[in-house]
Write a structure and sequence with these properties.
By secondary structure, the chain is mostly helical. It has 5 helices and 2 strands; from the N terminus they run ααααββα. Helix 2 crosses helix 4.
């Protein structure tokens, strides 16, 4: 899978309202991350719904999960997030080269 495909997959994962909400809460939590129950406290989503959407975010490479005892900590992969933002903005305002040698006559 090439970089554009990876970025498209990440954007697709963020293209659902619940996943975007979860992702933003995890961004706010920072590097310490949140458990599913902590996410529920902030968003009020049912655990089964969260599990489904977290799985999609993990598969897209935007969220990592680490086990601490009985809890699973969900954390944004900030390098991937910043890479995605960079991909979206890397050619911002560079314009297009125009070829004026061909005129429509």
């Amino acid at each position: 899978m090439n970089q554009t495909q990876h970025h498209a997959r990440a954007l697709s994962a963020l293209g659902h309202e619940a996943r975007l909400q979860i992702f933003r809460v995890l961004v706010k939590a920072g590097h310490s991350g949140l458990t599913v129950s902590q996410i529920a406290e902030h968003l009020g989503l049912p655990a089964s719904t969260q599990a489904h959407h977290l799985k999609m975010l993990v598969e897209a490479g935007l969220v990592t999960q680490t086990r601490q005892g009985r809890e699973v900590i969900n954390t944004v992969d900030f390098d991937k997030m910043n890479g995605l933002i960079g991909f979206l903005s890397e050619e911002c305002c560079t314009g297009f080269a125009t070829d004026t040698s061909d005129s429509a006559a």
